[in-house]
Amino acid sequence: MGRLAEEGLEAPLTEDERSALEALASLSAEEVEEIRSLEGRTRHDVVAVVEFLRSRVPGRLRRYVHLGLTSEDDNNLAYSAMLEVLVKEHFAKEVARTALKLSEISKREACSAILGRTHGQPAVPTTLGRELGVHAVRLARLADTLVSYRPRGKLGGAVGTLAALRLAYPSIDWRRFAREFVESLGFEYDEAVKQVLPHDRESIVLYESAAACNAAVDMAVDVWLYLTLGYLRLERFDERQVGSSTMPQKVNPVDLEGGEGMLRMASRELEAMAGRLQESRLQRDISDSSVKRLYGEVYGLAVAGLRRIEGALDRLRYERESALEDLNRHWEVLGEALQVILRSRGDEEGYERVRRMLQGTVMGEEGFAAALRELHIDALPLRPEAYLGYACEQAAHFSEEAERLAREVLSSRPLNSLAKRF
Predict the structure, then answer these.
(1) Which domain holds residue 181?
(2) Residues 174 and 208 reside in one and the same domain
(3) Which residues contact residue 97 at a Cβ distance below 8 angstroms, ignoring those fewer than 6 apart?
(4) What is the mean pLDDT of residues 288-302?
(5) Which of 116, 134, 136, 233 is at a distance of 20 to 30 A from 394, taking alpha carbons?
(6) Is 80 exceeded by the pLDDT of residue 416?
(7) Are residues 180 and 102 in the same domain?
(8) Which of 67, 87, 106 is the last residue of a domain?
(9) How many domains does the chain have?
(10) pLDDT in tens, 320-354
(11) How far apart (Å, rounded) are the C-alpha atoms in residues 68 and 57?
């Protein structure tokens, strides 16, 4: 109406008309049910909304509701706005909260030694803070990537040509109008469309969301394994908590396991949605609509999974005695230090000499001392729990980086002006 009035083709809106339109920005539950009833009769979601609006707007405006548009002109903006809110306001921020909890543990346990494992086997000592810090940074970076998502939008009519509007009102530059309108809502305008907006950008953010789910699963599994190895202990939720219906002593990591399952499901759904949205038969088919209607359910599942894992993270405690006991059963893990020392002293066969002596062994402190004598190395002032390299410093750095990124994500806001409607 505003552009028609500027061209002298229609009278400007009156104050009463403007108030009537603004009142439609927020619908009651009863009005939503009315639209649902109309959809049951029309078998078309947008037509149901159009009929509802025509019954509410002032008389002279009724003929302008949905004029020259197709349903996808409405839906692409609405669904993109909803997706931006789901991604930025809910999912990315929950990923950031998970990263923040991990960063706190990383800082607290920066120098808490544990035995690192590669391929499941004893490898080289590290610290709990460093290893959880790696997960914290990873999740914080993914959250930071997610909040950079900016949806595209389009307004193009039946097949993107704006043919009907150009024919009816040839004095108006409808290409310019479409761009200005879409950009005024905070979207990036896209004119290279069929009837349907290409969903490549939406697919990318869905794949990125799946990656964040997978990264959270990877972290949850590592924490679960540290619990199994005895490096961590899970405190009871409270004294009323029951761990098992038959084993009264149990404190099971059910929040980790439950969250893992929810995130695995969410990841699979997000990947399937991302793939489907990149297809559209000729100028348009409607199969993508069913996918987009599930945005809320899938992101809700992912957020719920993250929250369950966060609950477990709050109750984790480092088991120093158990972790050090495991380290001191495996002095052979200092083999890396031995072979590097020998080679640094000019022994070209240093690696092979140590390999032949230590490979496949499990060695305590006395056995390691005997190995040093056989290798003609003076006693080293080194124990497994002290062979940590820069692990403590790295843990502190990772914790700081994760916290910074997570707090930036938590303070961010969606760009589109429709966000306040969700």
Answers:
(1) 72-317+392-421
(2) yes
(3) 306, 310, 406, 410
(4) 89
(5) 233
(6) no
(7) yes
(8) 67
(9) 3
(10) 999 999 999 999 999 999 999 999 999 999 999 99
(11) 18
Q: Which of 29, 51, 67 is the last residue of a domain?
A: 67
- Whether residues 252 and 121 share a domain: the answer is yes
Quote the CA–CA distance of 406 and 137 in Å, as a whole number.
9
Q: Which of 314, 390, 415 is nearest to 83 (CA)?
A: 415
The encoded tokens of residue 258 equal 């439950």
- The model carries a pTM of 0.90
* Residue pLDDT, tens place only, 33-56: 999 999 999 999 899 999 999 999
Would you say 68 and 162 are in contact if contact means Cβ atoms under 8 Å apart?
yes
Measured distance CA(239)–CA(258) in Å, rounded: 21
Smallest CA-to-CA distance from 402 within 100, 66, 48, 187 is with 100
Distance CA 117, CA 258 (A): 25
Which residue bears the tokens 């039946």?
158
277 and 291 housed in the same domain = yes
Residue 27 · residue 48 · CB < 8 Å: no
Spatial CA neighbour of 153 closest among 84, 63, 210: 84
CA 296 to chain CA centroid, Å, is 14
Nearest residue to 113 via CA among 131, 127, 133:
127
Q: How many Cα neighbours within 13 Å face the side chain of 271? A: 11
Tokens of 125: 């000592």
Helix (H, G, I), strand (E, B) or coil at 286: coil
Token couple for 394 = 């790295």
77, 185 Cβ separation under 8 angstroms: yes
Strand partners, 233: 317
Q: How far apart are CA 236 and CA 153, in angstroms?
A: 49
Q: Which residue has the tokens 């893990």?
A: 333
- Rounded mean pLDDT of 273-283? 83
Q: Check whether residue 337 and residue 232 sit in a common domain.
A: no
Let me know whether 11 and 104 are in one domain. no
